[in-house]
Amino acid sequence: MITNTPQQWLSFLHECANAADDLCQHYFNKAQLKVDQKSNQTPVTEADLAIEKEIRRISAVTYPDLPIYAEEFGQCPEDAPLKFIIDPIDGTQNFVRGIPFVGTLLAIEVNGEIVAGLASQAMTFERWSAAKGHGSYHQNPHFDEPRKIQVSQISDISQSQVFHSSIFGSEAKGSSTETFINLLSKTKRQRGFGDYFAHVYVAQGVGEFAFDYNLKPWDIAPLKIIVEEAGGKYTDVNGTSSIYTGTIVSSNNQFHNLIIDTLNGKA
Question: Do the two domains 6-149 and 157-263 of this chain adopt the same fold?
Fold first, then answer.
């Protein structure tokens, strides 16, 4: 098995993200963008396919034996001790509608632990990244260099800002509207960002928590380490630290248990 350090893996992810950003910018708002429906009734565009193909090409050149677990062209076994996890475009429905909050999500998992991850938002030239033990960083064209980020210190849920995804529809599958609304009612301010964007904002300290349902591991993998390396906490809605259960709760770790209890109808 390849024995890279987390920082070496992160450098590789940045290389892949640079190529992905170029393709994302090329296809965004393209006239007559080709869009198909997958068997699960979610959209896939020619941009999703082109980005994943290019990332796979780079990976094959640099690490020919690196197992890949990705959205569009198949996955290695879930229990592979080393895997490269790829979501070419998180927020494909945003992409189709011309909303620029879309991101390429990349992560490396070693023996069940995410050791490096990034979310690259090509349309605003922003990137959030983390390597295990080395903190989380936000790259922005207005910064001279990437800035280390930290979760907020707000400790009262009644003073918190929460980010959430869809309340109704297919993207809310698995959630209870009653507990969903109950949790939102405990907070000061609510914004429906959804997708990766909600969770990198938690890591950045501009909100206290975010939650989402009906996800795949590639939707989650880099967000886990970005939040944790920023001092926050990541679990699924049952309080388990897994990227394979289809849900995500990220927080500043000030009242995480209360969030979990509320989502499960216990508070």
Answer: no
Question: For the whole prediction, is pTM greater than 0.85?
Answer: yes
- The C-alpha atoms of residue 66 and residue 154 are separated, in whole angstroms, by 41
Question: What does the alpha-carbon distance between residue 249 and residue 209 come to, in Å, rounded to a whole number?
Answer: 7
- pLDDT by 10s per residue, the chain, length 267: 899 999 999 999 999 999 999 999 999 988 899 999 988 778 999 999 999 999 999 999 999 999 999 999 999 999 999 999 999 999 999 999 999 999 999 999 999 999 999 999 999 999 999 999 999 999 999 999 999 999 999 999 999 999 998 888 878 777 788 999 999 999 999 999 889 999 999 999 999 999 999 999 999 999 999 999 999 999 999 999 999 999 999 999 999 999 999 999 999
DSSP 109-127: EETTEEEEEEEEEGGGTEE
The residues pairing with 261 across neighbouring beta strands, listed in sequence order, are: none
> Does domain 157-263 match CATH 3.40.190.80?
yes
Domain limits of the chain? 6-149, 157-263
Q: Which CATH superfamily is domain 6-149 in?
A: Fructose-1,6-Bisphosphatase, subunit A, domain 1 (3.30.540.10)
Q: Which of 112, 148, 145 is nearest to 130 (CA)?
A: 148
Query: Residue 191's beta-bridge partner residues?
Result: 163
**Backbone angle region of 231, left / alpha / beta, with phi > 0 → left and psi within -120 to 50 → alpha:** left
